[in-house]
Every structure is written in structure tokens, then in C-alpha cells.
Amino acid sequence: MKIKVKPVLLCSVYKRREMTSWRPWGGIQTEDDVEDEAERIKGDLENLTSKADFDLEILPLSILRADIETPRIEDIRSSDILLVYAAGGGERAVEILRALISNKPSILFVRHKSGPLYLWYEIAHPILIRGRTDRISQPWISTEDIVVDKYDEVLWRLRAYFGLKNTIGRRVISIGDPDGWGIGGKAVSLAKLKWNLDIKTVSYDEISERIHEAKSRKEVIKEAQRKAEEYLAQDGVTLHTGRNFVINAFILYKVFKDLLNELQAEVITVSECMSTIMPVAETTACLTLSLLNDEGYLAFCESDFVVIPAGILLHYISGKPVFLNDPTYPHDGIVTLAHCTAPRKMDGEHYEKAEILTHFESDYGAAPKVNFRKGQEVTVIVPDFNEERWVGFKGEVLENPHLPICRSQVEIRIKGDWKTLLEEMRGFHWMMAYGDYLNEVGYALSKVRIEWKAIE
After folding, report:
1. Which alpha helices (H) appear in 373-448, and where do they start and end?
2. CA distances to 70, 85, 98, 131 from 89, in Å
3. Residue 386 DSSP SS3
4. Residue 334 · residue 251 · CB < 8 Å
5. Which of 64-68, 217-221, 228-232 has the lowest mean pLDDT?
6. pLDDT at 75 over 90
7. What is the CATH number of domain 3-165?
8. Per-residue pLDDT tens digits for 90-117
9. Architecture of domain 168-454
């Protein structure tokens, strides 16, 4: 879903009065100044939109004059967020601004050197945030919501809102009963409460029927064979397990894909993926989930709703597949992450090399060992059991070892104080994505009242 942004220029025009202070700070003073600034903003927003790597719609700019009767802004209600250019105005501007931010999430943009200086460059903190007191006096806007000059700072905040909008209320298909590692059904309740996830449970009896029906159709088997051959013929793919496991993974892929289309969902997770699926599908779900992730879906094993919200949020913020993983014990500035369902298209465009092996614990089926790009910067998210405080850090891919653990495995150099990470670890499963998205994740979490600790 696209995010709709409504830009608003808040300003006043001032008239000279003799022997008194008739104008406040700021470079927007006259009718011509307002017109020039409106054109400048329109150009800035065209440039901003061209840089956005997510679905962004900028609505038409509205001008709110605090010195005249305020016109009604028709499309505020249809927007997701306000981008308020706080250029000027007197006491009435304070009232207008408070009315705006109390009704809609807002980012306040003020100019210092990017154009004519804005009055609110001076008074945003003491008047708007603190209400002429020494403490934050309102719940609608914080220091993180105010940007001075830099549109890159606006862009990542909008990216965070985009991720948040596409996470809250997201439909998730759970094959088997949804669960939570270590805390069971509590994780499911918290995911519904905090993120309003729409969880649709599909029983294993139904999935078994669907798999048996698919395997009874010659055209399905033929198509799975064709896709398996195409996959194995890709550059960088080597096979180290039975070819039939790969073919069956593509049959399972069709079953899951049909289910996603029928239920109009983009997220699927498998509860008992290491036991119940195997006898029916005659393979593991590992490669199947990897294939779906590469197509832009979110496909997770274990139905762990402790970590699934983090995966959804990180995916929609980054615009890339994410890697649900089992972490290990951080030491000497490194940590090993591993699982058997890693996407290959981690940057969203290019396939990483992969060996197709068995699933480690069962030594059965087909699971990708993805070779993550050495030197690649990554974001790693560590969600907690109680949806109260998440931790995150940036890292760098060092190597892809061959340890006797889950097949896709990566050694990460932790960028920041690894000993602090050791003390701050919580929950169990982590999420990883290519790129640096710590700012966006932290900003998004502040809007749903989850604390954020970035390891630095």
C-alpha cells in the first residue's frame, strides 16, 4: 500500500507598523515570498519523490495563512501523514499547528540554510514541543519528528511510515496453529494486540489434501519438473541432495502460492515445518519458503509470532527479502546467524550463489545454503518476547562457514559494542536484511510505543 503525504505550508504575511515590533523572525514575509516558497517546495517534493524507493504519493501543497481565515484542506483526511513546512505565523499559527499534529501523524520541516529561514527554526522546541514549559507538554510530536533542511532525513522517516502502514493489520497465513518460540500463544496475542495482524490458520489436514491433489495432477508435476530444472540450471546453483526433493519443493511452492492468492495474503508461515510437512510433501519446506521470499512474499518457518512482526516491518521498510535466523553467542565482535529458509535475492534484485542441500536436522529434503555477499552491510533486528523493547545493530558479512548447523549460515562482524549487545539480547529469533535501516526501524517503533536500543 502506498503512503500518501500531504504537504502544508504554514505562514503569515506581515504589515509594517511604526515604532513597534511588527514582524517575527523568518524570510517569509510578503505575498511574493509565499508564492516563491510554494514553488520551491513543489520542486523539492518532485525531487524527493524521484529518490523514493517505496510507493510514495505526494498530494497537492496547501498553504495555510495564519493571518487570514484558514481555508479548509479537503485531502488531509485521505492522507497518511502531514509534512508541515512551519515557516511563520503568530499565536494563531500555534493553534493551527497543534490542531494539525493532534489529528494526523506529522513531520515538521524547518529551514535554516536550505532556503529562507523559518520562524519555527527558533520556536519549535520551546513553544510546540514544550508548550513554554521545561517538559514535553503534548503527546503528538517529538524531537524526532522535526527536520532541519535535509530532505534525506524526511525520506527515511517517510520510509519508516511506509513500513509501519504495511505492517499494521497485515494478513498472515499460518499453516498449523500459530505459535511463539518460548512463550507459545502469548506471542500470537501480542502480535494481534500490538500490530493488529490478521492471522488466518490453515489446518494440516487441509494442506495435506491440497498437496495430495496437486501431486495427482500430471500437469502440476510436469510444471514442477520444468521449474526445478530451470532453477538448478541458474548460475551459482549447485545440487547436493536428491533432485526429487527439489521437484517436490516446487509442487509445495504451487500449493502455498495458490493459498496466498486465494486468501489475498503476502505473508505465510509454517508451524511444524520440520516434521508434519515432510511425510506429506516428501520434502522440506525450506527451499519452498526461500523461493517465495525471492518473489517478494514473506515466507517464514516455525510460525514464531515473536519475530514475525519484525520480519514484516523490516521487509516493508527495506523493500527487500529478510532472513529469519537463529542467533548464537556474540563474542569477539562477531556472531553467527543460521537457518534453512534464506532468500537468495537478498538485495531485492540479484541472486546470491547457493548450494541446495538437505535440511540439516533431518538430513532430508531440499534446503538452500545461501552465500551472503562478503563485505555487505546488514541490519539485524532482535525483538523481545513482550513487544516492549527491541534491539538492533548494523553488521558486516565476514564469511559463509560450513558448520554443522542450519544450512544458510553467516558470520557477522558487529558494528558497535558487541558486549552491550550481549547484555541487551532478548527473545530468540532475529531478522536480517541487506542495508542500513536502523533509523527507520527505531522511528517506526516509537509510533507503536515499543522501546528501541540501537547498538553503537
Report:
1. 418-424, 438-446
2. 12, 12, 13, 16
3. coil
4. no
5. 64-68
6. no
7. 3.40.50
8. 888 899 999 999 999 999 999 999 999 9
9. Alpha-Beta Barrel (3.20)
